[in-house]
């Protein structure tokens, strides 16, 4: 058994190996590299498209969020305005009711004053009549003279006119 150990390979073997490598390179390039490169480019473009879509959706979501926050703040402001308007309207209604009650109370008090004045005048008239009748009774007993009723009434009216209404009221 002899082994021949060489440091450099044979030239024919090296050329064949080189030709086989070049042929294998072109075959692999044609059947493997181009489809894999095409697939990788398509995949890269798909990923880039997804990233671009995600960025667009994110910016759209940010815009929608800003818009919704603005609308929410607007709704809060409008709600506060409605509450304030309702509060003001309630105060106005309250003030109207109080004013109506005051007017009605003043009206009732005025009617009561008028009624009291009327009753006072009526009472004064009655006192005047009773005082006149008593004065006539006393005078007729003192004089023992019986005057007729018309003469008595004339005397009472004359007496009241002379004395005046102010003295009867005191």
From TrEMBL:
GO terms for molecular function: proton-transporting ATP synthase activity, rotational mechanism; proton-transporting ATPase activity, rotational mechanism. GO terms for cellular component: endomembrane system; plasma membrane; proton-transporting ATP synthase complex. The chain crosses the membrane at residues 14-33. It is a single-pass membrane protein. It is found in: Cell membrane; Endomembrane system. Residues 102-133 form a coiled coil. It comes from the Bacteria. Keywords: ATP synthesis, Cell membrane, CF(0), Coiled coil, Hydrogen ion transport, Ion transport, Membrane, Transmembrane, Transmembrane helix, Transport. Pfam families: ATP-synt_B. HAMAP family: ATP_synth_b_bprime. Belongs to the ATPase B chain family. Component of the F(0) channel, it forms part of the peripheral stalk, linking F(1) to F(0). F(1)F(0) ATP synthase produces ATP from ADP in the presence of a proton or sodium gradient. F-type ATPases consist of two structural domains, F(1) containing the extramembraneous catalytic core and F(0) containing the membrane proton channel, linked together by a central stalk and a peripheral stalk. During catalysis, ATP synthesis in the catalytic domain of F(1) is coupled via a rotary mechanism of the central stalk subunits to proton translocation. F-type ATPases have 2 components, F(1) - the catalytic core - and F(0) - the membrane proton channel. F(1) has five subunits: alpha(3), beta(3), gamma(1), delta(1), epsilon(1). F(0) has three main subunits: a(1), b(2) and c(10-14). The alpha and beta chains form an alternating ring which encloses part of the gamma chain. F(1) is attached to F(0) by a central stalk formed by the gamma and epsilon chains, while a peripheral stalk is formed by the delta and b chains. This is ATP synthase subunit b.
């Amino acid at each position: 058994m002899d082994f021949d150990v060489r440091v450099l390979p044979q030239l024919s073997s090296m050329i064949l190996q080189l030709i086989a490598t070049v042929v294998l390179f072109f075959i692999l390039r044609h059947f493997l590299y181009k489809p894999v490169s095409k697939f990788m480019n398509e995949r890269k473009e798909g990923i880039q498209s997804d990233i671009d879509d995600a960025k667009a959706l994110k910016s759209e979501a940010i815009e929608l969020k800003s818009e919704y926050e603005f609308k929410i703040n607007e709704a809060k402001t409008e709600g506060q305005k409605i509450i304030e308007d309702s509060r003001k309207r309630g105060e106005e209604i309250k003030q109207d009711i109080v004013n109506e009650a005051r007017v009605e109370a003043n009206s009732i008090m005025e009617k009561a004053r008028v009624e009291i004045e009327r009753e006072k005048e009526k009472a004064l008239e009655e006192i005047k009549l009773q005082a006149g009748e008593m004065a006539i009774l006393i005078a007729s007993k003192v004089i023992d003279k019986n005057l007729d009723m018309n003469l008595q009434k004339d005397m009472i009216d004359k007496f009241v006119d002379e004395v005046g209404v102010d003295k009867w009221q005191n």
